[in-house]
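Hi C.,

You asked whether I'd gotten around to modeling the 88-residue construct. I have! Everything is below, sequence then structure, no commentary in between.
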Amino acid sequence: MCLLRRKGKIEEIIHEVEAAIEEVFEYIRTNDYNSFVLLIGRGEVFPGLKNTEGSDCVMDYQMDRYHDETRERFYLNYLRDCRLMFSI
């Protein structure tokens, strides 16, 4: 593919992505302003949470971090045990 066609295709993709981002911002602005929190960081939506907390949006959910820590600890212990078992 020639360089000019490739550059044109890249520019087309960039414009498509920019338009999609603008569409998301416009949708959030007009439909659910609180959903901006999902774009800031580690955001998630928990359906039903709005009834008790006022919003379905959660940022930096601590349980995810806990699951990551325990998963990593398990993995490292497993590798250490396997190394010890096969080094005998």
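If it helps when you're writing up: The beta strands are 43-45, 57-59.

Thanks,
B.
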